[in-house]
Amino acid sequence: MPLKARTDIHIARRIWHFAGVMFIYFLYWWTPPEKSKLTVLALAIPLLAIDITRLFWPPLNNAMMWLFKPFMREQEKHRLAALSFMLAGVTFNIVLFPRNIVFLSLLFLAIADPVASFFGIRYGKDKLIGNKSLQGSFAAFAVCFLITAGFLFYKHLMMERLFIVCLLSGLIGALSELMPVWKLDDNFVFPVLSAFLLTGLFYVFGGL
Predict the structure, then answer these.
(1) Using CB atoms within 10 A of its CB, is residue 78 exposed (0-12), middle (13-18) or buried (19+)?
(2) Residue 148 · residue 103 · CB < 8 Å
(3) Which of 48, 97, 123, 186 could bridge 101 with an S-S bond, Cβ 3.0-4.6 Å?
(4) Apex CA 151: angle with CA 89 and CA 84, to 5°?
(5) What is the pLDDT of residue 163?
């Protein structure tokens, strides 16, 4: 059976994406703040090294493609896997951004990204940029709005400005999922761009 293409729904990959990001979320949550950066680096660096090595060592590449066949795409045979770009983006965020911004950007990546992709592939008839659609972007907006609302309620942050912050956070999520940045992989762009914009939003509304 051939590997899946980008235009396939690929449910197994979306579950894998969600589970992987949520594993990092809870690892970051449970790790003391002073150790969290080193912990994530210790996880990310070996995985990135393996993914890079397989591109230059065919036996390892074949073994990895066989082992992770349910989650891989055809174009990842000879390029870095989406997991590597995701790990790079998540690690970048954890090293550079405040803790609450990291949590929120991880939830955006874990939930909004696969939901937007699903709705874009399944219902996305009105294309906006490349293969990104109005339907996928609206799904990203709705999910990011709800995630932000739940997160701010739990943290009891900016309650008097809750609706406007959630509305703008939803727009940030939709924009980060939609917009291409040079030729960077969207698994890197989405978490980093959303974290950058959320930091500005939280600063303006007193959430930092």
Answers:
(1) exposed
(2) no
(3) 97
(4) 15
(5) 94
